Amino acid sequence: MPSLTERLAAHLLRPVAANVQTRARLHLLDWLGCVAAARRSEQAEVARRAEPDVLTRAALLGNVLEMDDVHRGALLHPGPVVWPAALSAAREREASMAALLEGGVRGYEAVIAVGATFDAWHYAHWHNSASAGAFGGAAAAASVFGLDAEAIADALGHAGSLAGGLWRMRHEAGMTKQLHVAQASLTGLWHARLARAGAAGPRAILEGEQGLYAAMTRAPRPMVFGAGWQMMEVSFKPWGACRHVHPAIDAALTLRQQGRLSAPVHVRTYADALAFCDRPEPKSVIDAKFSLQHGVAIVLDKGEPELADFEPGAIARLAPLRAQVTVAEDAAFTDAYPAHFGAAIGDLVLADTLGDPERPLPADQVEAKARALMQWGGVDPGPLVEAALTGMAPSRILELLEATV
Question: What is the DSSP code string of 267-297?
Fold first, then answer.
């Protein structure tokens, strides 16, 4: 029987239809917006000092503001691990826009297919965007390079053998989370290069003895090889916080729009939202983005969250409102998770969150989000938006990124 990586490699080589390539342009635009907005961050300053290559700098910025796309079932962010690898391969090969977009679609497919097999034990210890991420980077680059199924399986084998990314970095100040996604993306590129040159990789790296599942899971789920493309099930994030905070923000906004939101507020949600985001006293921007209490306090104070609402001044100003927000687990939401990210406040129950497949952001709102992010970063949105949505040359995107980051 073929191994899982061999089956996945063959699955990736299906034709990518025009409508899926159009969807890929939206995800590319979303990632470019996240990168442009992060150019004002401390991480961007470090990246400029440390890295001469524009795509390495961009790879370090795509996840900084917590605005990047997310897949619920796999519990990971595909965009920041796929697009730097795909663009790097396109630059190296001088590839067409179609090749870049197909590489993006196949990269999303691989990272999600692998990430969705990881169990709760894995997610409790390992950052899925890192541990599954190199599969996405490798698949994206391999597609742009035009590799066959055998070489793609080799690249995926390398990716699995070197998988990692511990959650410990969440408990201490630092920039390791950005290193997680950048390493996953750019080592995936490296794996594809080596496979192209003939470096064989372990084919049963996932399910085999002493493989990834044996080392990093307790009850891995079956890998799904669907007829469609997983990219079509990826969520766009409307607000600059951890996705686990979004259901609470969404519920609070709905109540505010109905004229029924007032302090004190008690949020009921799923267990992982509390495990990652029960932070009543955030000390930093990243803490605030991972704080259920802060997200709801923003809505109590003004309504729709903006990036400025997670900055130090807002963290200090909203302390009294955060103190009036309490959170607790609701078993019904935990049982529905991760297929659904839900929350409730009072009698208002939201089973799914804005941006998810059940409640998608229309394309014009995805574009509006990207434009707002670029403006936050001090970048003229017009050229980047045009290059992503209608452009025909990856080289134009690279030229604009060089001027941006």
Answer: EEE-HHHHHHH--SS--SHHHHHT-HHHHHH
Distance CA 244, CA 279 (A): 12
Tokens of 334: 């935990």
SS3 344: strand
For tokens 């259920």, the residue is 292
DSSP state of 307: G
Nearest to 128 by CA among 220, 195, 46, 60: 220
Please name the amino acid found at residue 312: P
pLDDT tens per residue across all 405 residues of the chain? 999 999 999 999 999 999 999 999 999 999 999 999 999 999 999 999 999 999 999 999 999 999 999 999 999 999 999 999 999 999 999 999 999 999 999 999 999 999 999 999 999 999 999 999 999 999 999 999 999 999 999 999 999 999 999 999 989 989 999 999 999 999 999 999 999 999 999 999 999 999 999 999 999 999 999 999 999 999 999 999 999 999 999 999 999 999 999 999 999 999 999 999 999 999 999 999 999 999 999 999 999 999 999 999 999 999 999 999 999 999 999 999 999 999 999 999 999 999 999 999 999 999 999 999 999 999 999 999 999 999 999 999 999 999 999
Give me the residues paired with residue 325 across strands: 265
Q: Which residue has the tokens 């400029």?
A: 48
Helix, strand, or coil (residue 49):
helix
Residue type (1 letter), 44? A
**H helix count then E strand count, the chain:** 22, 4
Write the CB contacts of 133 (distance below 8 Å, at least 6 apart in sequence): 76, 81, 111, 165, 180, 181, 183, 184, 185, 188
Does residue 343 contact residue 267 with C-beta atoms inside 8 Å? yes
| Complete domains list, the chain, with CATH | 4-238+362-404 (1.10.4100.10), 243-350 (3.30.1330.120)
Asked whether the CA dihedral 302, 308, 310, 313 is positive or negative, the reply is negative
Q: Is the pTM of this model over 0.90?
A: yes
**Torsion angle, CA of 371/373/378/379, rounded to 10 degrees?**
-50
Contacts of 59 (CB under 8 A, 6+ apart): 80, 84, 181, 182, 185, 186
Of 8, 323, 303, 294, nearest to 150 by C-alpha is 8
